[in-house]
């Protein structure tokens, strides 16, 4: 079958002919219907996001149709359409993303090394062998008109899990910092679908902000100035701020979000910022704030987000889907890197 592989740490992403996966205990084989190509995939391949265990088939998640299951798998069956979340959790912070970079709270251990040896290959392929723990059934998804669009679900689920740590969204004012990225765009859509009173979309890219504004009258936008005080004043006051920023040279935009919170507000961090935050103890205490981190998603959140989509409450037609095939991985990575906001690239075998 055809797959996108990385042979070694210093290799590029390549189109390869590889053997079809064979079933192993605890495994599920899926026919890949579509897989999201994150905007920063090139940085992952070139080592900018931590070590990839090579050689491997790349790909953190997909929408797939189950073709075979091991005898010890009961929650999905051949024919089911599923989301592959890529998240394999052994407990105590030992978590891996199959086919990708990223380790859970333990930061890696002898156990995560063994997990990554057994469950190494990801979803950028015609077929994928997945650990059963990464499979969430999407009931009736076989009737969804454009399954490739569902490849955006993983980002919606990560955003939903982050927002959820701050409690119910209905009637509350939410800000998304980095709304001009794909995670941020997903978060804006999710917050609207869950009844936020207002959603303030914050980012640099004016074109992406304008597209977000078209989602409806509850969306406000703010183009980042880079000045923390000015940005905080324009963003707030909000009850919840979700930070979905990529790697930024300073923590100013994140701290502007902190400053913009109302009393009892919550700042949730899900982005890729690699900066330390200086939290003023007294201010944090007197304003009774909450600071939360959130990583990936959980099965219940996947089901909840899928129900929003299948019921039409969350309409994925607002997202521009750019389909690519296997032939030219380099151009696909370039396209993904240029794609922001309410657009995303999906590999459709
Ligand atoms: N917590 C989790 O479970 C989880 C899961 C998946 C991904 N992530 C993280 O989420 C982050 C965002 O993912 P994505 O797919 O949305 O990436 P993306 O599409 O590349 O978005 C990056 C965002 O960061 C902003 N940004 C980048 N550099 C900036 C700078 N110097 N100053 C201000 N803003 C800057 C961009 O703003 P403009 O477009 O306006 O320039 C954009 O809004 C990634 O870094 C990833 O590590 C976390």
UniProtKB/TrEMBL annotation:
Gene3D superfamilies: Medium-chain alcohol dehydrogenases, catalytic domain, NAD(P)-binding Rossmann-like Domain. InterPro entries: ADH-like_C, ADH-like_N, GroES-like_sf, NAD(P)-bd_dom_sf. Keywords: Metal-binding, Oxidoreductase, Zinc. Residues 27-140 form the Alcohol dehydrogenase-like N-terminal domain. Its cofactor is Zn(2+). Residues 184-309 form the Alcohol dehydrogenase-like C-terminal domain. Belongs to the zinc-containing alcohol dehydrogenase family. PANTHER family: NAD-DEPENDENT ALCOHOL DEHYDROGENASE (PTHR43350:SF17). This is Zinc-binding dehydrogenase. It comes from Amycolatopsis halotolerans. The lineage of its organism: Bacteria, Bacillati, Actinomycetota, Actinomycetes, Pseudonocardiales.
């Amino acid at each position: 079958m055809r797959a996108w592989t990385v042979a070694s740490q210093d290799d590029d992403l390549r189109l390869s002919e590889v053997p079809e996966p064979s079933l192993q205990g605890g495994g599920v084989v899926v026919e890949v219907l579509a897989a999201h190509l994150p905007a920063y995939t090139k940085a992952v391949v070139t080592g900018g996001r931590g070590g990839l265990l090579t050689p491997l088939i790349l790909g953190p998640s997909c929408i797939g149709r189950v073709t075979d299951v091991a005898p010890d798998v009961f929650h999905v069956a051949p024919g089911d359409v599923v989301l592959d979340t890529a998240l394999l959790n052994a407990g105590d912070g030992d978590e891996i993303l199959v086919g990708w970079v990223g380790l859970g709270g333990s930061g890696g251990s002898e156990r995560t090394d063994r997990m990554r040896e057994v469950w190494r290959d990801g979803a950028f392929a015609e077929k994928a062998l997945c650990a059963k723990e990464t499979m969430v059934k999407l009931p009736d998804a076989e009737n969804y008109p454009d399954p490739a669009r569902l490849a955006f679900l993983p980002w919606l689920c990560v955003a939903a899990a982050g927002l959820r740590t701050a409690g119910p969204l209905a009637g509350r004012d939410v800000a998304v910092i980095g709304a001009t990225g794909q995670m941020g765009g997903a978060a804006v859509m999710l917050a609207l679908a869950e009844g936020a009173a207002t959603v303030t979309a914050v980012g640099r890219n004016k074109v992406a902000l304008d597209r977000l504004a078209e989602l409806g009258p509850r969306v406000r936008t703010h183009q980042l100035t880079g000045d923390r005080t000015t940005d905080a004043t324009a963003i707030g006051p909000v009850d919840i701020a979700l930070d979905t920023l990529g790697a930024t040279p300073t923590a100013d935009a994140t701290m502007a979000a902190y400053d913009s919170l109302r009393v009892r507000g919550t700042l949730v961090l899900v982005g890729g910022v690699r900066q330390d935050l200086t939290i003023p103890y007294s201010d944090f205490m007197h304003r009774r704030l909450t600071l939360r981190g959130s990583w990936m998603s959980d099965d219940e959140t996947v089901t909840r987000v899928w129900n929003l989509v299948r019921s039409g409450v969350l309409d994925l037609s607002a997202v521009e889907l750019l389909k690519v095939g296997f032939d030219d991985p380099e151009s696909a990575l370039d396209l993904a890197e240029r794609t922001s906001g309410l657009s995303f690239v999906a590999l459709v075998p």
